[in-house]
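Whether sequence alone determines local backbone shape is best considered at the level of individual chains. When preparing material for the folding task, we compiled for one chain both its residues and its backbone structure tokens. The sequence in question and its structure tokens are set out directly beneath this paragraph.
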Amino acid sequence: MKAAAPLLVAAVLGACASSPPAPAPRPPVLRPPELALGRQDRAYLVDPLSGYPETVGAGERERLQSAFRALLERGDVAQARSAAEELLTADADLMPAHVLAAQADFAEARAVDVITRLVPVGDRSPSYVASQLLLGRAAEQAGDIPLSYAAFRAIATRNQLAFQRLGELHPRALEILSNRLQEALRTGKLDEADKQLALMRSWGAEEIVTLEGARALAVAREDRLAELTAVKELAARQRDQALLERQAELELAVGDPGVGLQIVKELAERHPNDPGIAEKLAAAKYRWRLSLLPRDVQVVAAKPEINKGDLAVLLYWLVPQVRYARPTSGRIATDVLDHPHQEEIVRVVNLGLMDVDATLHRFSPGAPVRRGAALRSLIRVLDGDKREKGGPVACLGGAKGSSRAAVCEAAQSCELIPEGQDCDAGSPLAGSDAVELIRRTLKHLGTS
């Protein structure tokens, strides 16, 4: 048995000697580095010269295109960066080299760096396809949808992908601008709101969200003509009753009174039992009659802020009891002798409805009139009618005095001021607001 062991070892060794030799290890397969991009993102990398409007030398052209192919086909970011740096060292204004550098940034998912590089390029050459296409995608990735939309919009007629993305981003881009506009209004930054609205109009002038933004800015600026323009467009698209009522109010105040009256008539026909609309119809008829008065009276009624002379004109022309009354006093106002509305001012002053400085005998027709002063004059109109008819106007009751508190109490009692509204005596007065206060006064006189 002991002699068999060497034979076994020999057999094993012989078997090993007769086995084929092990294959040599193969060298590892070298694959090109992968771009940090999905397949969809690669579509935004195009030849850096695509759409570039200027001439590029043959050497620069070959260097750009070779580095771009290496980036796109082999993921060679280093070669793209090296070529871009070399070309920009020779010519810092070579825009395609900036685009190539931005493409290298994009390949490494550095969207913010792409934006930083390409915004100046887009400012200089808005129709440059390779730049704007990449900027649009990078801005979208960074969350700046308006910038993305603007970039795609600049080349939408020259690139199918940009045209497609434009349509997809349109609603969201306008929504974001609208939100920025509303935030600017909330913080009182009207100039910033105006910039956002201008951009919205350039992207979608007839979109509902744009018209709503225009209306909101007009309201913030107390620009009723601009508000009327926006409300008319909105009402034409939405046929909302609240919009129609507001359009009628604005037409009567600063637009076409005939149109305003017609709108309210149609609403009254549709809602014959609505007391609110019936009241609006009465007001509309009154405002329409105002449109038949002399042109200079209508101009006063449309002013955003009236003065003392303007209030005298409105009292004279809108209150029959003033226009046809016989003055009982002869107050003198030396500063209205050459005023174009001397007759109206003198009549109002001599009826005691507005005051003259007792020492200097000056009326100061150009001085701004405050809401409290206008209410005081209207209470005097009611009080004068009470004396003339021998009985009090019911709403005045026993109200006495001309102090601010007394005037405010009387104005609220006579519903010259809507219930729950403050007198706001020190605020300026618009012509249309004065006209409405006079209309409410005339209701007590039976002449509205």
User: Anything to note?
Assistant: Residues 295-445 form one domain. The mean pLDDT is 88.
